[in-house]
Each structure stands twice: as structure tokens, then as C-alpha cells.
Specification:
single chain, 17 helices, disordered N terminus, about 450 residues
Length: about 450
């Protein structure tokens, strides 16, 4: 009983305090999240579709009797050229990230980091190849930008501006190739060259539409609203679809225009981004050259580059995942004279590097996220400051960089003696003691004066 009473008298132990950690997860709007999930749903359908395409292509090789040529060509491939082609295409991904970095580097408050942009570019590469007409790429990229901390409007505007530069780069690259290699296409393909000119013209019209959307937003909004009302009155658009597109036309168009105009003001940044985009496209268009050299065949780099540019215009014009159908026909027509008996094997290798390999590499990169929260602008300035300090001799060991202390500091032209850190400390200590003694003396004098004044008052 006594033990029970003792235990009852003892106070209960206070509950342990649990340290609470506030998660700084960046918010993502439900609309962006839903759009990303919809893109993934399109990917699943595309994988099934591409499976049927692969089976159909294998059956084509069997029934046309090209299996022997295909196997023989693959057996004689020089793998060093294939590896060089893979490395070349990896730079396509690197230049894509660099283009995004240049687009946000001027903003000191942009929360997006390098790994965030790696995820954004990987999403573009992935969904561009696995959704019809690349429709899943913009929602997936906007989702990852908002996940990194950007607002939905700013993320949409950044993605749209990047899309305009990329599409303009495709048209500009094709124009340069036609300028230098137009005679080759006419002499080799004759009047069929008009098809290439038509594809180039379609790209020009597409880019002009984007530019008009950015520079003339109010006329575009007026035309868009009229078209939406016209379609809604004839029941071509349901009411919910009408409201959705009406909101896009009347809010996002103006936001896109403002973002593009802000970016266009910085002309050097725009030109640098365009140059990087041209280099990025060149890495993709050059792949047929590396594949052709892997078979030991002679190849003209400029002709392969121009043919690759025309081929991508055709692939982009086909509204199927990865331009299925257009890629096969275009490759066979443009490169048949170069590859000869290696055409089938060459297409398979080119398609594997240009289409399948990027999907495999991009899939794990889409989950990358930056954790520092510091803008690229501030990080770049800090690194540049360190580099300048190192080059100018203000690195380690200097006074500003917090170098070794306790040494002798010499100031040229100064009349004072050089003082070590230890002597400074001693001097500082003696000075403090002197001040304390002076304070005590002043207090004693003040007290004595007060006592004298009190005595004089008492006598009176």
C-alpha cells in the first residue's frame, strides 16, 4: 500500500515535446496537376500504339525479304560512330537546359534552380515524343515550373516564350540549310523539293502566328472571342469548353504577350537563347551523319544536316506520336541515295538514338528538384564575384577574404608602426583598464563634492 501511495504521489512525467518541422513544399495548382496526369494517360496510350507500329515494321521486314540485309548491316556497324552520335544527342539535352537557364537568369527572384530546369527540359523531351503532336509537353513543363515555385501565369508565359524561340529556331535553321543546300535538293529530288518548301512555309506561318499572338494581343483576343462565340452558337463547342477557352483567350493571351515583350526587351539574352537553340537543333539534325559513318559510307556533313532539318519538319507536320509514318517515309526518301542497302538498319539505329534513347534518359530526370531555393541569378553573381576575387588576387589569405590572422599588417606610406594582433590585444586591454580607473576617480570626486555640499547645508 505504501508503495502504491508513493507512486500516486509522484507527479506524472511531462509529455515529451516533439520538434515540429514545417515543410516548405511548393504549391501546385489542381489544374496543373490534372494536366500532368492527363499527359501521363496519353503516354500510356502512345506506348501501346508504338508497340503495334514496331510489330508492323517487323512484319514488313519479313514479308519484303529484307531481314538478311538488316542483320548483315547491323553486324558491320562501327560502334565508335554510334557512341559519338549518342554523345552528340546528349548535348541536345544540355543545350536545352542552357536555353532555359538563359531565359530565367536575369530575374534575381526567380525560385527555379538548375535541377528544376533539368526536370522541365526532360519533360519536354519525354512528352514531345510520346504524345500526339507534342500536346503533352507544355502542361508537363508548366506543372514542373509551378512545382518549383513559379506562379501559373509566369510558368505558362516562360514556357510559351521558350516554345516561340524553339519554333523560330527550327524555321531559321531550315532557311539557312535551304540557302546553302537548296541546289542539292533540287538536283536530287527535282519538283519534289516543293514539298520541302511547303513544309518550310508552314513553319513560317506557324511562327508568324506565335509572334502575332505576342505582339498584337488585342486583335488576337477579338478574333478568338468571335470564333468561340461562333462555334458555341452552332453547338460545335459545349458550354464548359466555351468557358475554358474563353478564359484562356481573355487572360493568358495578354499574360503571354507581356512576358514575351519583357523578354524581347533584353536583346542580348534573346540572341544568346536563339544561338543556343540553333546549336541544340544542330545536335539532333546531325544524327544521320554519325549513323551513315558507322556503316563505313562516305558522308557530307552539311548535306546530312540539311536533310535532317527537312526530315524533322516532316515529322512535326504529322499529328501522331513521334511523327510515326512521316519519319519512316521521310527517312527513306531523303537518305535512300546515301544509305543504299543499309537504309533499313540505318533507320532503326537513327530512330533508336533520336526517339527511344531520349525517352529512356528523360524518364528518371523528370523527378529532379532543386532544394536551395536561391535564384540562378544570385548564385551566378556570387560565383562570378569569387572568380573575380581570385583572379585579382583577393583570394585566400587576403584581408577581405578572412585570411590568416595574427600576422604583421603592413600599410605602405603609413607613419604608424606595424602592430601584431597580440600587441593590439594588449594595447586594447591597457586602454580599458585606464578608462575604468578614470571612471572610479571621477565617481569618488563627485561623491566628495556631494558630501561637502551636504556639510555646508547643515552648518547653515
Amino acid at each position: 500500500m505504501a508503495e502504491e501511495q508513493d507512486t500516486q504521489k509522484k507527479p506524472k512525467a511531462a509529455p515529451k515535446k516533439v520538434a515540429l518541422k514545417v515543410s516548405a513544399v511548393r504549391s501546385v495548382s489542381p489544374a496543373d496537376n490534372a494536366a500532368d496526369k492527363k499527359s501521363m494517360g496519353q503516354v500510356r496510350k502512345t506506348v501501346v500504339f508504338l508497340g503495334f507500329v514496331a510489330v508492323a515494321y517487323a512484319l514488313y521486314l519479313v514479308f519484303t525479304g529484307q531481314v538478311d540485309e538488316f542483320v548483315t548491316s547491323l553486324a558491320g556497324v562501327d560502334m565508335s560512330w554510334i557512341v559519338a552520335g549518342v554523345v552528340c544527342f546528349l548535348f541536345y539535352y544540355v543545350f536545352g537546359i542552357l536555353a532555359y537557364v538563359l531565359s530565367v537568369a536575369a530575374d534575381p527572384d526567380c525560385p527555379v534552380g538548375i535541377r528544376d530546369l533539368m526536370s522541365v527540359e526532360a519533360s519536354g523531351v519525354f512528352f514531345m515524343r510520346l504524345t500526339p503532336n507534342s500536346a503533352g509537353a507544355p502542361p508537363a513543363q508548366i506543372f514542373r515550373l509551378t512545382r518549383a515555385g513559379m506562379s501559373a501565369g509566369a510558368a505558362s508565359a516562360l514556357n510559351f516564350t521558350r516554345t516561340i524561340i524553339y519554333e523560330t529556331g527550327e524555321g531559321l535553321f531550315a532557311a539557312i540549310m535551304l540557302l546553302f543546300c537548296g541546289s542539292y535538293f533540287y538536283e536530287t529530288f527535282g519538283d519534289v523539293t516543293l514539298v520541302g518548301l511547303f513544309l518550310f512555309g508552314f513553319k513560317v506561318v506557324q511562327v508568324a502566328g506565335f509572334v502575332a499572338l505576342c505582339l498584337l494581343p488585342k486583335p488576337v483576343m477579338a478574333v478568338g472571342n468571335w470564333a468561340l462565340r461562333f462555334a458555341n452558337r452552332r453547338k460545335w463547342l459545349k458550354d464548359d469548353q466555351f468557358e475554358k477557352y474563353y478564359d484562356v483567350v481573355n487572360t493568358q493571351v495578354m499574360e503571354f504577350s507581356r512576358a514575351f515583350k519583357r523578354a524581347a526587351v533584353n536583346v542580348p539574352e534573346m540572341l544568346a537563347t536563339m544561338l543556343v537553340t540553333l546549336l541544340q537543333l544542330g545536335c539532333m539534325y546531325a544524327l544521320p551523319y554519325f549513323v551513315l559513318r558507322s556503316f563505313g559510307e562516305p558522308a557530307d556533313f552539311m548535306i546530312c544536316l540539311a536533310s535532317g532539318s527537312m526530315l524533322e519538319l516532316l515529322v512535326n507536320a504529322v499529328p501522331l506520336p513521334g511523327g510515326a509514318g512521316g519519319a519512316e517515309v521521310g527517312f527513306a526518301y531523303l537518305f535512300k541515295g546515301m544509305y543504299g542497302i543499309h537504309l533499313t538498319a540505318g533507320f532503326v539505329i537513327w530512330r533508336a538514338i533520336e526517339y527511344l534513347l531520349p525517352v529512356i534518359i528523360a524518364a528518371p530526370c523528370m523527378g529532379l528538384r532543386s532544394t536551395s531555393g536561391e535564384s540562378i541569378n544570385r548564385r551566378a553573381k556570387r560565383v562570378w564575384k569569387r572568380v573575380r576575387g581570385f583572379v585579382s588576387g583577393r583570394g585566400a589569405g587576403s584581408k577581405k577574404s578572412g585570411g590568416a590572422r595574427g600576422g604583421v599588417t603592413v600599410k605602405p606610406g603609413a607613419k604608424r608602426k606595424a602592430v601584431t594582433a597580440g600587441s593590439k590585444k594588449a594595447a586594447g586591454g591597457s586602454d580599458v583598464e585606464a578608462r575604468i580607473a578614470a571612471g572610479k576617480a571621477a565617481a569618488a570626486a563627485k561623491k566628495a563634492e556631494a558630501e561637502k555640499a551636504a556639510e555646508a547645508a547643515g552648518e547653515k
